[in-house]
């Protein structure tokens, strides 16, 4: 009987150690821990300490800190809930956060904090997208201009089909120029933007 009890006591820490993984197995419910087992998050890096995370039964702990700027949710002042599938519900913003965008860890008082990636700034993403479109349009403009020059220069190309291509390409050239200017942010006031937007 004593041997069985000793065997169970010796095996228990091994079972707990296996709950902490480096990667989540497929089909398994997992949450990310910011720092390795036996450590907790400090002001600049992981520091020794911590009692272990309180997670739902059957949920594995994966040691993996997301590589993004993060903010933390304090238990008590910020309401959040961890679901069985490993996602986090941030109640204050009514937002569900997927597993790869947050991690959990303890603070100095052994309370579980959630560290969430800042959402990407939508204005910066939109601005970068518009700049990429503008660059693509500017890349197309010389080729459209070359097509207009070729069809306008050669008399043999000025038949009905050639004139259709010439006028169509000329309109595309003008609209690409105006659209590139608009998407690059050269017209901030409303009236010039409306005037330039009409031909497009």
UniProtKB/TrEMBL annotation:
It is found in: Membrane. One of its GO terms (cellular component) is membrane. The lineage of its organism: Eukaryota, Metazoa, Ecdysozoa, Arthropoda, Hexapoda. Keywords: G-protein coupled receptor, Membrane, Receptor, Signal, Transducer, Transmembrane, Transmembrane helix. The keyword Signal applies. Residues 1-17 form the signal peptide. It comes from Nezara viridula (Southern green stink bug). The chain crosses the membrane at residues 130-152, 164-182. It is a multi-pass membrane protein. InterPro entries: GPCR_Mth-like, Methusela_ecto_dom_2, Methuselah_N_sf. Belongs to the G-protein coupled receptor 2 family. Mth subfamily. This is Uncharacterized protein. One of its GO terms (molecular function) is G protein-coupled receptor activity.
